[in-house]
Design a protein that fits this description.
The protein has helices at residues 7-19, 54-57, 61-65, 82-88, 92-95, 120-129, 148-153, 156-159; strands at 27-35, 38-44, 99-106, 133-137, 143-147. Helix content is 32%, strand content 21%. It starts with 6 loop residues before the first helix and ends in a 5-residue tail after the last helix.
Length: 164
């Protein structure tokens, strides 16, 4: 008898499918917001509506202007992050107490992102959205659960210990 997939990996698999729509040349990201066992919204990384995507331009603007900086230069990035797109497609009342499932993998290698997580901009949006937990895929079966309340209690923007 086949073993039924558990719910966390079920939602992470959906986020991974959503990530396939990403238009970033460096990293594919997909997010699914779930509350009370219902999908509230999904989001993937891509240029704002009406603007050209990096895959259409043939270059990554962030990489072009900030080639050696991994966690900076977000103003040069054309993409709206997957987490942001999922949040702006939802109402706050539908997200309160919910979970955000996030999958990130490298476009070229298809390997899951090493040390996956949310940037500072996305963290601020997630905190204000009322989401309780962010569940990030580590590999095909394993994941990390991040309590958003920890981001609030351990304000890394004040203590000088910014983590990604």
């Amino acid at each position: 008898m086949d073993k039924r997939i558990e719910k966390t990996n079920y939602y992470l698999n959906i986020a991974e499918t959503v990530a396939q729509r990403s238009t970033c040349l460096r990293k594919k990201s997909g997010a699914v917001i779930v509350n009370h066992d219902e999908i509230v919204s999904t989001g993937y990384s891509g240029a704002p509506r009406g603007r050209e995507n990096c895959i259409d331009l043939g270059f990554c603007s962030k990489k072009k202007f900030f080639p050696n900086i991994r966690h900076a230069g977000y103003d040069a990035c054309r993409s709206v992050h997957a987490e942001m797109n999922a949040i702006i497609s939802s109402s706050r009342k539908d997200m309160l107490g919910g979970n955000l499932y996030l999958v990130q993998y490298r476009t070229e290698s298809k390997e899951y992102e090493e040390n996956p997580g949310c940037c500072q901009m996305c963290r601020k949006l997630i905190i204000n959205s009322g989401i309780d937990k962010v569940i990030v895929r580590i590999n095909e079966k394993d994941y990390q659960i991040i309590n958003v309340s920890d981001w609030i209690a351990n304000d890394d923007l004040l203590n000088g210990k910014i983590t990604y």
